[in-house]
Structures are given as structure tokens and as C-alpha cells.
């Protein structure tokens, strides 16, 4: 009974409880793990404390910046393989520091698991491979080992001196620049740029940007959405460090976001690009790219068949800055050579395949021609997807995508991206920061989620489109089919060389006038009549009505747009269902 206990005795009991609490709190190990940097290759494992040290003060500097292992309670333990190490003690506010900057809305932080993954994937990091393997495999064993260590620590022999472990303030060590995110812990940088364990595009769409190097430290499988318009600095000194480039961080939502950075890293991995910039739409990516790379009074070359809004921007807006445009047929190599020899051409910009006739440009050939004259090459690969075509590997300097289409793939989000070397993308990014057009982090999350099934979707869409193109070409009520997978396509052999699949869009002309074509479209039951493509749901439209209805019939014909033209984007529905629907609609006319 505490009322009958003498005051000295109660004081001794309280002191004993305090010491017991301190020791237990220091030795506890849970799902929270932290890295230990070892001084000797003979030490093949590590041990972590679980919670922030709220009792003692770290030795040797600011409590925000340093942690000294020797200041903690010494212990050693023998686990599998005779592992031994010291316990890390964390500075006060450590959990709070992990929760700010690029870690908002995250929980259950497992730093050691990430570091172990990086070490195991980076032999040059200085940690023995055995230690990396042990670190990854002993995470569950550390808890039980730590309990035994707590009981035997008093009798254990002293371990060899381990150099102090410096763990800087976490909010200062997160390297979050516009060009990507790197998680820096001690001297280890986490990056998944090599993806040594991912051997296919399908695996990259699922794991790239997330499995190793995600800048948001969390145990969640999915990437968290960081909803914030700005990022704060705790002291003016931190702001000055950032402004004078001694530290790197997020600053304002228009300049970058942790969720958006994950998407950029994922697309970069898929395209084989050094850097990627995502924007609010595909048109935003195209127009900002043109404004950033083509000087006033400059000259560009493009192709006849292209997305109409891109043509409008080139014809109506670029001339206001004195920029002139040469338009050539996608296969007119002689025209391209003449243009780059006659003018100081800043950029050759084209789609491949094009919209809506799916013409293909010889990317390798045009890149060689342009580069001899110092001309950049940018390919809009939206119809191809990064899975079916690698424009950068073929020699292009930049590749643009409307992520709204196949990359997002669910008809529920707008987005665009531009991929290429860091130097060029940085030029575009600088203008993007001025103009805006920022991708919302919620939209970035939807595109990340959509990309995880991209390879499955595109495989189905490639297959359905190819089979339907063959059926349509053989049907008596179809006068012409445009699809690069068909031998009748003018660039079929080229498409076979530079593409691994021909895409999910087929354009074709009904044997009849506009009224008969309307009847065919209206008789379809599966596809939606809508102006997009590349999603899970099939979509159909008549370009003459959907995209060119403000022009006269004669004006439309200048672009090759006939009243009987149909553009059909095949989704992921069962092939037999789609086939039956198209055939019954043809029978209806």
C-alpha cells in the first residue's frame, strides 16, 4: 500500500521505475527500423531502437542534426550468424521531422528496410552483401533478439568501439528537386534508376519509382497523395540554405510535389529517360515544350497529319512570336532535308503514329538528319505508348505523351508528360514553373495507379485492334482501313521495325456518306461516342463531326478528313463481344 510506504522507499521505487522505463524504452524494437553505418566489414548486421529518444540528449551537437551511438545505452547481442552492433539513439522530434516535408500523410516508417534494399542492390555502397542480406532477412528477428539483449546487457563483454552514427535532420536530407527525388540517409542515396531486378516493361509499370527509391518513406504499398500547396521552413536559416543551394527541398506546389515526383520517376524508367516533367495535360506539355525550345523568329518542321489543336497552336499562335513552320508529309524525307538545309530549324516535332491516320515516321532516320544540322527531334508517342515504341532509344531527343490516354488508361484523369535528357527537360521545367499548368497530386496518383495495369491493358488493346483491323479490311461495307499493323499500311514495314505493338486505335472509312456513317456509329452498343482514346472502355467518333465540324467539307478534305471516317479506340472488353457489336452495326447499315 503506497500510503503505508515511507517517503524514502517511495523515492527509491520511483527512481527504479524510471530507470527501468528508460532502459526498456531505449531497447525496444518494433516495426520502426533505422540504418546503422558500420566501420568494419566484419560487422554483418545492425540493430535498431524503435522509438524516438525522449529521455536523453544526443551528444556532440544540435539535437536536430546529430545522433551519437556511444551516448546511448551500450548493449551487444548474438543472433543468427553472431551479429552484434550498438543501439541507435534518435534526436528529439525525430518522428515529427519524419512527418514533415515529403512525409506528410505517411505512417509506420521503415527506414531500415529501404536502406537494406538499396544496399542489396548497390554493391558499391560499401556494405558487404552478407550484411545487406542479413539486414533484409533479420528485421523480424531483431525484436526477439533485442529482448534477450536487454536481459544480458549487464553481463555482456564490451564491444569494439563503433564510430558515432550521424543522422541529420530528416527534413533537410530529403533531396526533392524538380528532376527527381533521392532519399539520403547518412552517405547512402536511395534511387531505383537502374532497376536491376526489373527485366520487363510490365514490371516497370508496376514498380518503377516506388519499389526502391520512392521519396515518401512509408510502409504503404501504394504511393500516398500529398495534398499541399506549399512547404514550410522551420527557420530562416533553412530557407537561406535552400535558396543558396546548400540544401534541396520542395518549396511551392507549382514547383513540385512528392506524389508527382513518383510519377515522373516511373515514366522516366519506362521511357529510358534521364528526366521527365509531368503537366496538367498533353497539350500543356506540347505547347510549353515549343515555347521553351523554339526562340522568337525560329523555325520548326512538322507533319501534315497531327492532332488538330497542336496544328492550331502552330498556325495561329507561334507566328505571333515570329516562328515559322514548314509542314511535310510524314514520309517526306527529302522535304525534311530541304527544310533543315534552307532554314535554321530549331525543332522537328511530329506524332508517330499520327492522329487520326496512324502514319509512322522513321524516328531513327529523321533523328540522324536533324542532328547533323543541330535540330532537335521531339516525338509525340501518345498513340504508340512507351510500351510499343521507345522513341528516345531510336534517337529522338524528347518524347511527349498525353497521359490522359493509355498511360492513365481509365478515362478518369487529364495529364501530360515530356521525357528526355536532364538539360532539355530542365529548360522546359523552368518555363513550366512560370506558366503553371501543374498536375494535381490527386491526378498524379490516378495516373500512377493506372500505369500499374498498363502493360495488361495495352496487350489486350493491341490484340483486339489488330484482329479487328483485319476483319474490317475484309468487310464489304468498309472502304479503307488505316492501321500500321496491316500490310496495306504505307509504313507497315517501318512500324514493324520500330514498334513492338501497333496500338489500340483503328481508323477506317465506311462505304457510304455521312448519314450512313452516323447510322453505323449510332448502332454500336459497346463503345462510347467520345473524343478520347486509350482507356479501358472502347470509344468511337467521327472526326469530321467530333473535331472538324466547324470547317466546311472542302476545308476538312484539305486535311484528308472525309465524312465517312471513323476512329475506333478499342478498350479491354472481350474481343468476341467487340467483334459481334461491330459486325451487327455494319449489318445495320
Automatic annotation (TrEMBL):
Pfam assignment, any one: Cys_Met_Meta_PP
Name this protein carries in UniProt: plant cystathionine gamma-synthase
Catalysis: reaction(s): O-succinyl-L-homoserine + L-cysteine = L,L-cystathionine + succinate + H(+); O-phospho-L-homoserine + L-cysteine = L,L-cystathionine + phosphate
Chain intervals with Basic and acidic residues compositional bias: 8-18
A Gene Ontology BP annotation from the UniProt entry: transsulfuration
CDD domains registered for this protein in UniProt: CGS_like (cd00614)
Pathway: Amino-acid biosynthesis; L-methionine biosynthesis via de novo pathway; L-cystathionine from O-succinyl-L-homoserine: step 1/1
Keyword line: Amino-acid biosynthesis, Methionine biosynthesis, Pyridoxal phosphate
Recorded superkingdom: Eukaryota
Transmembrane keyword on record: no
GO molecular function: cystathionine gamma-synthase activity; pyridoxal phosphate binding
GO cellular component, one term: chloroplast
Cofactor(s) the record lists: pyridoxal 5'-phosphate
InterPro entries, sorted: CGS1/2 (IPR044639), Cys/Met-Metab_PyrdxlP-dep_enz (IPR000277), Cys_met_metab_PP (IPR054542), PyrdxlP-dep_Trfase (IPR015424), PyrdxlP-dep_Trfase_major (IPR015421), PyrdxlP-dep_Trfase_small (IPR015422)
Region Disordered: start-end pairs: 1-22
EC number: 2.5.1.160
